[in-house]
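Thread: Modeling a multi-component assembly for a lab meeting

Hi all, long-time lurker, first post. My supervisor asked me to bring a structural picture of a complex we are working on to next week's group meeting, and I have zero experience with this. I have the sequence lines for every component (859 residues in total). Could someone generate the structure of the whole assembly? Inputs are pasted exactly as I received them:
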Amino acid sequence: MSPDPTPMQPLVAVEDVHTYYGKSHILHGVSLHVERGEVVGLLGRNGVGKSTTLKTIMGLVHPDRGKVLFAGNPITGLPAHKLARRGIGYVPEDRRIFRLLTVMENLRTGLDRNGVTEARKQELLDKAFAYFPVLAERRNQAGGTLSGGEQQMLAIARAMMLEPKIILLDEPTEGLMPRMVSQIRQIIDVLQREGVAILLVEQNVPLTLEASHRIYIMEKGTVRHHCAASDLKVDDAVIHQYLGV
Amino acid sequence: MSKRSATVYWTGFAIILALLIVAPLVLPEFWRRFVTEILIWGLLAMSSDILIGYTGMVSFGHSAFFGLGMYGAAAALLMVRPPNLWLAIVYGLIGSAAIGLFVAYFSTRLRDIYFAITTLIFSQIFYVIIFTWTEVTGGENGLSFRRPPLAIPGLFSAPFTAETLHWFVLAVVTASYLILRRITQSPFGMVLQSIRENEPRTRAIGYAVERYKIVAVMLSALFAGLAGVLYAVQNRFAAPDFVYFLVSGETVIFNVMGGIGTLVGPIVGAGFFLLLREAFSRFFTEYYLIPVGIIFIAMVIFMPQGLLGFMRRWLNR
Amino acid sequence: MGIEQIFAAIPWETIIIQTVNGIVTGMILALIASGLTLIFGIMDVVNFAHGELFMLGAYIGVVVITTSGSFWLALVIATLVVALLGAALQITTLRPLLGRDPLTTILATFGISLVLQNYALWQFGPVARKIQEPFTGYFTLFYLEYPWYRLLIAALSAAIIGAFWLFLKYGKYGVWIRATTQDRVMAQAMGIPVPWVHTGAFAIGAGMAAASGVLFGPLVGVNHAMGLDWILKAFIVVVVGGMGSLGGSIAASIFISLLEAYASIWVSPAQAGIVSFVVLILTLLFRPTGLFVPTPK
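Re: Modeling a multi-component assembly
Sure thing. I ran the full set together rather than chain by chain. Output:
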């Protein structure tokens, strides 16, 4: 286990990262950081590299240049399963729950780690079912039979089973009805109150501005704008410039 | 190809060709046969390269094309008197082309692993047929026949000597190489390579990928069958062992060892493998495949581009 | 001819005997094919060396029985040794190839199969060995003395497959294997050590092949080439059953074995082997995703 970082070190730091998919140069020097317990929003049009940034932090994609640090320790190039165990949770675009596994089995994939007692596992499960009662109802159903919104909740709950220090959320409200969107909004608040940091990639600008402490805006593979969320309004010129149609 | 590259290439080509022409005159009988065999297996491997190296289709079915070329030639040499070299070639090519059509049909409906496994199984089907249809194919014992004379009707006819046989094989293999090289460098060849790089995109651009694949398979089958005919003529027998899928496997080994997508690489690969076999047989007798197999695995892991892989770009310009 | 005469002309007794034979062979084939399907489903590797793992299992069985006299000990030891060998092979030759062109794994496993075959030839020679059945004993099935042992093989194979299925469904690592098979990337993101799951799955597949080798040993001679026939059949079964579908390959194994058993009533066993090829071609033509896969996606 890594020693506690000094209070000055961010939880996650991405420094000048360049990532390629084959020959495509997707990230052209991305730098950002997330402090403990913060909610940070990452905005930008489709295809600017937001998801790739999350994947790079999660170790699913390795950068050609640059560094990623977690609690002060370099994690660049480490495989994703080690990072998950260190405390990085990932909720991808289109959820990607295990469709042929039951809800319980999906949650179990995050629970079966070293050093977790049976009692603690039960606590975590109870917590997940308390936050997401619909999952408790469907606990023995196959993941593929759940609705879109339910799958999203399962994806988030599954990541929570890792007891992460940060959760990377990729477009959690995409394709969801307004009622579910506000539920997601509430979950973000709950997670933040529990001290879990969140790096939130979203197309839904108002929700992001409301939920986040700070905002990064990306364009063409790099960060173009960075400020406190309170500095921006939905109709701000900056928003139009980087996100407007 | 730039002027300078072309000069280097053709000079190298000429030198190697000259060496091969002189070979039977200076080498002892054993090594003379050895070189001729390398050429024949090299032709087989080259035909396989069209599919693996240029179109991106891995086939384990070349033993079927090779075997049918061999048996086709056998049929001509046994059924038609006097035995005629050119008829043997024609029969052999027809035989392998027929199988080629069959395989080509499936090639358009299957991708990657499924295609590879299916071609493997097809070659086994032919093995079983040839092995059990004893009345026609001689079954386990195969067929033996007399070597036809080198003849151009009306001009001359002379039985093959060790040297002239070697030169004949060399001529056929060289001509095949030049033809295949011309084809791979043509627009048709470019489309094949595009299919290998990115099939969906090639299709999206508007090419009838299926047609190209069928032609590629047919080409490959024809030249593999030609290799089979040469083998039959050289060794004067046809046996089911050559249709067994292990032959296909060895062909793929030649390709990988020599470098796929280079056309000459597979010939070098065949030579390399056969040399290794010779060398290791001295120490390991018939278990030479243990060290050779290990070398092969190591090459797949550490040197996947093969011996000539580094020259691939240059050889294809 | 009247109905009664047609009825009398059909060799019912032989058909029933062949049904039993077909099921026995089918279960062995299912055990081999399950390992192959597991390996393919989880890491997209077509394990060409699977037949040789079967063969090595049989040979280790021979060695253990010769020294200890116990068939059951042979079964256990062969399974464990080959499982370990499988793990070692996967780590040394297949892990470096992860993420590369699938062709390379076919080639690497083909190379392994050549090495293993010739190693066996070197160590044990070309003469076939025999494994003694754990017990002799026959019961009368119509006009034949049918060995109990054959039924035992079928039962044991079914038991092993059943145990494996239970492990997949309820075991902790079973969930890991299923998750990794479905979505390797998200399995990693959930902290599952995917490289080790791959190694483990390969070891399990290898162990199952070895067990089949020991079980099947008493029925035929054990020799270095015995893997070749089985690997081809197993490939056919995996494709016909739907690549990656465990249930499909089991069903396909029994289906094809039954058809071949019936065919050999009228033609020679070598020619009956063509049946499986024909089934493959028909499957590829009309239902390429697999005969026993519910609906083509």
